[in-house]
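Q: Protein A?
A:
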Amino acid sequence: MTNAIKNFREKHNLTQQQMSDMYGININTIQNWEQGRSKCPDYVVELLIFDQFHRKMEKKWEEERKEYVDQIVSLSEQSDYWFKKMEEAQDMAKLKVRG
């Protein structure tokens, strides 16, 4: 597990400082773990992996939510367009009846 933290950090394109800021882990602690001066607890690695998974899922859900909102907006705009066309056709029909 000595290189687990470094592997994790590099896999997620994080510097030691970014990882320190993101997770509230003292940068010296991260350096000690990566250099083998102290052992990173297994549960920390597991929590980091879980957190990254959670972040990826949130991003995916946000993208899907945005996609659905875009589809709803598009359908709403199409509905508005056809509703206006229907009103125009009704108005034209009324004018023909009167005329």
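Q: Protein B?
A:
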Amino acid sequence: MLARYGRADIRNTRDNFLSAAGKHGLDARGLPPCFSFFAPVQSGDDDRLRWRDGIIRDGQAIDLLAAMDLLVASSNCPHPRIRVQSFVRSR
């Protein structure tokens, strides 16, 4: 994150998930791939991922149903595909 945002103290989502999992005795082997319902990323015909502004609208929602007990972690981090000129971290 240092190269992109000029700050070394900004973690990525996977690191945040590893930190959350560690609090419950889990490590990277028990951590599935990260995914985002809300990042407007689509794959093209060439299978490359592209950021698509404007495809997510205010008020859209997703309902999830868990058929077993599970541990859920949420992380709010800048997406690597978003085109940003600067990043301001709020405290």
